[in-house]
Amino acid sequence: MSGLKGNSPLARSAMAYVLAGGRGSRLLELTDRRAKPAVYFGGKTRIIDFALSNALNSGVRRIAVATQYKAHSLIRHLNRGWTFLRPERNEGFDILPASQRVSEDRWYAGTADAVYQNLDIVEGYAPDYLIILAGDHIYKMDYEVMLAQHVASGADATVACVEIDSAQGSAFGIMHVDEADRIVSFVEKPKTAPEIPGQPGRSLASMGIYVFERKLLFELLREDAADPASSHDFGKDVIPKLVAAGNTWAHRFEASCVRSGAERSAYWRDVGTIDAYWEANIDLTEIVPELDLFDRDWPIWTYSELTPPAKFVHDSGARRGQAISSLVAGGCIVSGGSVQRSLLSSNVHVHSFADVSFSVVLPEVDIGEGARIDRAVIDRGVKIPDGLVVGEDPEEDARRFRRTDRGICLITQAMLDALD
């Protein structure tokens, strides 16, 4: 399979456990019917495909995904696109919905509990190491590099961290490290973020990625489950307790970030707000984007539905089907309309004289004749009426749709139906 690493001993002795049960409420109506990891990204993938592809490309062939809120869309995607791993090759792929396996009235209480409730399933695979992953970030990372650091250091836990400006620290869990990158304290969303030694103005933010030796993790999770004062969360409970014990180390994303020749810097994005989601998608339309989705050495695997090629028709006067500086997925028809600096997901139809600019359009959207759409995110299956104008009158946009402080409009079918 193109793009996959050889079978390295560490990766083959590890299991990736992806936490994909979050509500994603900051994405507003975009997560009304789907969990955040199931939200479409980049025209044909879902957000969770990045964590899963990183695991597969790193050589990790035993993967589990814990789901909870509004999980149907996510589970359907996983079943369609990620069930090719084979038990007879010592591989595995498990989808683990919250199913009250510990108690009949208990859902996953936190990220640590989401692993604790499935300890017997993990035990069945008997991995030497557990890589705990968040399923809702966009990045390319070789987990084998982090595994190697974890083993070489003899750490109780290793936490993947990304460098940020210290001024942004109030939005993240910040790791305060010493000169050797041993974590000396963990601070959740501090007003003043601890700086990296020797790097003024820079701090290390947790990526929600942890490596543990399995037996130690099981002990920690059983202790945590028995603690009535715990919120049963890795970031709030398990990691701070280990940090206090003094043998938890930071792993810098720069060391394991996968970059093609086109990527200038380490790329990691939390697309947890409409503005961040819009920006990360629109960034892909740059001539040389910060994230290279065309990297064949580290492909982003996903479920690929069968679609015909994109089609552009009509070339008569102002009625010209065209797309400029845009990404257009299969099954799209741009019929006499214009698309600029936008991302069209599968099976989008843009009708004559419509103009779409700086917009993220999810699958199955139909944009009516003469519509003008600027700086929008359009949810799946929406039918934009003929002549609708979005992005030109801020007050009108705010009255009809979800409009962010940056002027991005989220459009759903329910919002359009309410206009009738």
3D structure, described in words:
This protein is an alpha/beta fold and 420 residues long. Helix 3 (72-81) links the parallel strand 4 and strand 5 (92-97).
Radius of gyration: 22 Å
> How many E-type strands?
31
Distance between the termini: 51 Å
Mean pLDDT: 94
Shape: globular
Count of helical segments?
12
Strand content: 25-35%
Poorly predicted segments: none
Q: Helical content, roughly?
A: 10-25%
Structural category is: alpha/beta
Largest sheet entry:
9 strands, mixed
Walk me through the topology.
Layout (H helix, E strand, L loop, with lengths): L8 H4 L1 E6 L20 E2 L3 E2 L1 H10 L4 E6 L4 H10 L10 E6 L13 H6 L2 H7 L3 E6 L2 E3 L3 H11 L3 E9 L7 E5 L5 E6 L13 E12 H12 L8 H12 L2 E5 H4 L11 E3 L3 H10 L27 E3 L1 E2 L2 E2 L1 E3 L2 E2 L4 E3 L2 E3 L2 E2 L4 E2 L4 E3 L2 E2 L4 E2 L4 E3 L1 E3 L4 E2 L4 E2 L3 H7 L1 E2 L5 E3 L1 H5 L3
Parallel strand pairs: 1-4, 1-6, 4-5, 8-12, 14-19, 17-20, 18-21, 19-22, 20-23, 21-24, 22-25, 23-26, 24-27, 25-28, 26-29, 27-31
Antiparallel strand pairs: 2-3, 6-11, 7-13, 8-11, 9-10, 9-11, 15-16, 30-31
Catalytic activity: alpha-D-glucose 1-phosphate + ATP + H(+) = ADP-alpha-D-glucose + diphosphate
Keywords: ATP-binding, Carbohydrate metabolism, Glycogen biosynthesis, Glycogen metabolism, Nucleotide-binding, Nucleotidyltransferase, Transferase
EC number: 2.7.7.27
